[in-house]
Amino acid sequence: MFDKEKVGYSFPAFTITIERGKIHELALAIGDENPIYHDLEAAKAAGYDDLPLPPTAPTIFTFWGNTQLWEQLSSVGINVARVLHGEEEYEYVAPIAANDTLTGVTTIVDGKTRRTREGSMDILTTETRYTNQHQQHVLSAKTMFIVRE
């Protein structure tokens, strides 16, 4: 059963630098051939300072940037062996491009327990607020985790 006292708890900050090659690789992996993700000149011609971030890229920040996420969730009583990914939501506040360094702080913003036919499940929502190297808020990412009992 989720401990509602954990709502509002923030984990330590983490950083990730957006690398041009990783933007190119991600676009290749998802089949996006838009030249702005592959060629600096094309990105600049489209009005970007550098290769822009593909819209779904923040999913990888959790795994490449916050490598301690599973340990952090465990530390507040979440059984990470029973976690299912529920949903992901992004709010872009400012442009993010190659060579930006982002700092993320993840906070538990909601948690509840739901009864099921087999017992119960916890539904946990976190929000990660990202700022860039200029301390400008650029992105908020919400993630819902379902913890099967």
From TrEMBL:
Domain FAS1-like dehydratase: 7-139
Recorded superkingdom: Bacteria
Entry protein name: FAS1-like dehydratase domain-containing protein
Originating species: Dictyobacter aurantiacus
